[in-house]
Amino acid sequence: MTDDAFIAALPKAELHLHIEGSLEPELMFALAERNRITIPFGSVEQVRAAYEFSNLQDFLDIYYRGADVLRTEEDFRDLALAYFDRAAADNVRHAEIFFDPQTHTDRGIPFGVMAEGLLTGMAQAEATHGVTSRLILCFLRHLDEGAAFATLREAEPWIERIAAVGLDSSELGHPPSKFARVFDAAAALGLKRVAHAGEEGPPEYVREALDLLHIDRLDHGNRSLEDPALVERLVEEEMTLTVCPLSNLKLCVVDDVAKHPIRRMLDLGLKATINSDDPAYFGGYVNDNFHAIAPLVMREQLRTLARNSFAGSFLCEADKARHIAAVNACP
Q1: Disulfide-capable partner of 59 in 53, 55, 205, 321 (CB 3.0 to 4.6 Å)?
Q2: Is the pTM above the cut of 0.85?
Q3: Does 199 participate in catalysis according to the annotation?
C-alpha cells in the first residue's frame, strides 16, 4: 500500500479546526447572495488570490471579513455540514471544532444563532456520515477579559453541549495569563480547557497555558522545542499537541514544509497530532496535511499521529479504545 492509500485508509480525529476557517470561497459567495451582503471580492479567484499571508494578523484580517457572511442558523448549519462532508471524505471519525462567538456577537448575531446552527449541523453530520463531534468555545485573545467573561455568561444555556473553552486569535502581546480567571470560571462549569500557545508566541506562553490556564491540550506548541526543559515537561505530562503543518507553512511559522519539526516532535516523545486549522484559507484539509509531512516521517509514525489524535480527544475511554483499535488494524 502506498503512503497515499495508507493515509486515506487511516481513521483520524481532528482536534484543531476553526469552523469559520473552513468557509470556502464558493460557500462565502453563496451565503453573501442568500443574505444580500456585498463582499469586497468579485470572484472566487479573487478570494483565493487574497489568501497570501506574511503572518497571523494578515490572515486574521481577511478571516474576520469572510465571517461577516454568516448571519443565520441555516448559515452556521451549512458551514458545519460543508466541513463534515470534507472531513468524512478524509476518514475523520471524530472532530472537536472551535468556534469564535465574539466574531459574531460583536456583529449583532445572537449567541444562540451560531450555537444552534452549528449543533444542528453536527447532529446531521453524525447521522449522515457517522462522524462524532464536540464543540469548543474560543475566546478572542485580542479582546479583553471582560468580553471573555461576557461570552462565557452568554454560553451558559448551551453549556451542557459545549465540551471545552479555548483561546485563539492574535497571540503576540496577549499572553495566556490575561485569561487565567476566565479559564478558572470555565473549569468551575465543568469545561475542558485548551489554548493556542507557542505558535508565534514564546515558550513562556506555553508555560503560562500549563500553569495558569491548566490546559488539557496544547494547540500548536511549535516553539516549545526552543526550551528543552519545557519539552521534557510536556512529554512527562503526556500533553497532546495539535499541530497544523500547512497552517505553519502558510503563516510563515516554517518557511518550507520540508523543515517542519513534526519528526523531531515525535522523536522527542511529544504526543503530536495532525490537523488542518483553517483549511479553506491554508489550502488543505486533514489528509492534505498528512500528505505534506509524510516524506518527513516513517509509516508507523503516521499511525502514531492518528493514534494520538484519538488518545488526545475528549471522547470517553471506551470510544478512544475503539478508534485506536481501528487505527492499529489499518493495514
Answers
A1: 53
A2: yes
A3: yes
